[in-house]
Amino acid sequence: MPKLVIMPPQTDPQRMWAARISDTLPDYDVVLPADADEAKREIVDADAAFGNVPADALAAATKLRWLQSPQAAPPPGYYYDELIAHPVTVTNFRGIYNDHISAHIMMMVLGLSRGLPGYMRAKASHDYDKDANDAEFVFLPDSTAVIVGIGGIGGATALQCQGFGMHVIGVDPRVGDPPAGVDELYPSDRLAEVIGRGDFVIVTMPHTPENRGLFDAGMFARMKSSAYFINIGRGPTTKLDDLADAIENGVISGAGLDVYETEPLRAGHKLWDLPNVILTPHVAAKEDAGGANLNERRSDLLFDNARRFAAGDELLNVVDKSLWF
Question: Are 156 and 102 in contact, with CB atoms under 8 Å apart?
């Protein structure tokens, strides 16, 4: 009988997922510890766990073979040296957000391409100004998107961009052949070479040990002065002060951000007041975003992996722990 520990603190959806596994896969012993001390005792003989397993609990987990991460790209600190070295297989929730987040990206692409920030500012002033846009319009069929990270979200975004007639360049460390929607594909070590071709540089990559601060003053200097930078991946990949300076000084034209180096973005940061900038507060995969229920998708993926684990089958969404994704 596999033992699965749902690490505390548990949310209401997680308790429902646990009940679904218990009711439908009766061979499972599903445990929901009330606190960290109880979790450390319960994980000693657990075969599987869901959530965040701190180092002291992992040291006691002598039988642990499967860990389901609670997110697609968990925050810094989730993958630590002991977890990377441990034989446990980690899986995540990548793939369930593709449609939601690619739509959010296209909202930014379309808004920036048509001068929306300037017109929204004019609206706030009750100003009927046809020239309120902060930069020239971008005709999308003549434009190029450089998408950094061609996983599920990046791939869905490529198809959206292609639908608007855009030329799509993908940059990814692992994808070997261009997926649908991607016209050209390059490894990550060629990013600096191709970033200057983009009218839109769209970052969907997770935060990894190698890419913290990757997008800095030097990288922005390689972009077109008319280009826009969009980040919905993880905030630590981008130095926000460098980005703000690049926009303020005309190095690039503007930006769309849903994630930030430190969240929330501090009230005094100059990005708030710069023209040609769209800011949203990490809501690209908001739970009440409408359409398909994200918690239902999480439940289905967790359940499928629980069934596979019990049967000894290959798990879905296995993570390369050394890369954090």
Answer: yes
